[in-house]
């Protein structure tokens, strides 16, 4: 079978896979095989902002195709395996998957723009918790409840805010019974309530 | 020569090309031939938010490929000609152009997220004026200065704000000599100053 996989690489949680800057000749196109990758920009004051999560089967590092400057870090969230691909040697099937992946990524970033611009922080946090519950940072408790492993810093980056404010809103969501909060994890106690919150406009 | 163009359509300024909702079986993939298209979402209170401008040679309506729900309107900004394409019948060359276009669109939306989240309104307006000056709404004055035809409402949509606030900041930019303001148009008096402003973080 024709394959364009040049290499399969493994990264530990928190390891940086790609740095901001011009794509270099040795850069490849990357596809997540297992785990989760966060594309995150960091401003001059050190505030992090998540641009997109990349899940198994999805592509990143697509700037290698256009040659445009990369404005973000790609970071492994969990232990992550990625395939490095030669962008010029994709099979017809891979080309088709890449287009599908780019279309989905574009839809996701549209939603992020809409949320950051139009929603209150509480609704954005609800939407982010639901999004994370469909990634490899999710786990199931014995009672069947779904939880996500994420720090308040990571949630702040995903919603475009800072930790202090996120901690306050998470306290509010906890008191209102939407979630339960533990060390580095949050359990979704009322998923349908969170779903409703995530759809509310400002 | 093989072609996947099904039809070429013309739209007047302000005409809606696509509405939000599920892509229907009769939906096609669209490519701008001449003019400018704005992808814009409108919230329950009628506030508009520009997700992306689509310039000649660029594609939109890409949800027809993934089947995902469209969350925006596509609107002609100027008189606009678009090609309707059969997404399943793209030539290898068109497929390559589509991938390039999607990659560029994704980079643009990353920048929009970074701006909306991290920049002050004044910097976002400077960045938007420069972006518009590289589209068909730009014109050149006799003295060689570049201007853009855009209302305060349109700029508000592009920066994720409201008209009243935008009018205030445009007054400020005018007093400081960055721009000159006329009926439905803005002239870039100090492009390099605007360039500096557009790169400033919050």
UniProtKB/TrEMBL annotation, chains A, B:
Pfam families: cNMP_binding, HTH_Crp_2. Residues 119-192 form the HTH crp-type domain. Residues 6-65 form the Cyclic nucleotide-binding domain. One of its GO terms (molecular function) is DNA-binding transcription factor activity. The keyword Magnesium does not apply. SMART domains: HTH_CRP. One of its GO terms (cellular component) is cytosol. It comes from the Bacteria. Transmembrane segments: none annotated. Keywords: DNA-binding, Transcription, Transcription regulation. Gene3D superfamilies: Jelly Rolls, Winged helix-like DNA-binding domain superfamily/Winged helix DNA-binding domain. NCBIfam families: PRK13918.1. This is Transcriptional regulator SdrP.
